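Chapter review. Work through the record for Rhodopsin domain-containing protein before attempting the end-of-chapter questions.
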Amino acid sequence: MPSDIEPAMQPPPGVESNFVDPPSILTSSYAVVPLCIVIATIFVGIRIYTKAIILRKVVTEDYFLIVAWLAYLGYLPVGLIINKTKPGPGVHMWNVPATQIPKYSYNFHVATILYDVVVIPLKVSILLQFMRIFSPGSTRNYIFWISIALIVCNVGYYGGYMLYQIIHCRLSNAYCHDTFFVSACINVVSDVGILILPHRAIWGLNMPRGKKIALSGVFLIGLFACIAAAIRLSYAVTLRHSDDFTYWMAKMSLWVFPEFTSGFLVACLPVLPRFANTISEIPLITRLVSSIRSLSGSRNVPTNASPHGTARTGRSNRSKGGMGNRNVTDIEFQELVVETDSRSVVDYDGGRGSQDKDKKLGISVTRASSNSR
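Structure tokens for Rhodopsin domain-containing protein:
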């Protein structure tokens, strides 16, 4: 260690400071951050294209999603600056020159504020989508009220926490480490609440059990967000009791990206079947799929037959709504996403089943009565 460089923290006994090439998470950061942002960008693009071009109906949650995505893109320059700050992210403080601590503190401070800017519109978008799917029109069921409560709590807490970070907090302050712990705890609870919210409604729908499992499985993508949030919480606990904030803060921050990307997937996957159906009707795509099937030996399988050999009828034919031929493997979210007007009714609270037909999508949503189960 050069004698004229003072480390930000004295190294443990038997360890010497390394200011030249200390161990870091630089490689992981360069891999995880762009990958997660690219995945989120692809699926946000699919959602916006589907809603704006195919369905021609952009709603409130789509605007919140766009705001969250734009803020998420802001992590790219912030992450690049953190990576370029010598000696790199995830370096123990005894390997960091004391003169670099203000830069580390400021960069992570900006990233912490940016987290709140992303998480507020992202969670609001997801919860508004749950309300539109499971509480259409004037329906006021438990999902509606729980979603409203979660929106108020998330906006209130993260908004207040962001203001506190801006006005009072600095990352090198031990008291701020406690706020990271509290924030991580609340975030885990919020993520778990959003994860479990739609499943009771899904299992109240009148559809085959296999399709219920498939729908639940799609929303269970949010489980990855919960896992990432739990890992962040474990690092926040360690950070709370450690002065080595350059190391543990970077470890904790890296898991923000899998958490956010999982949230974007939860928001975007419900439109994926409609997007896939539309894309599959493009002649070039149709020819490409046919060629692939021919090469894979599926030429002898009739195109109008299901995997079980029964003819596809009814909903597989092109409807007036322009839905076209449908893949039997599609998860048909059109059975859940209905128009929020008086033509569409989904009753999850009443005893009798209710049914109404969505005129645009050409589908019906029915809840079986409690006596039929």
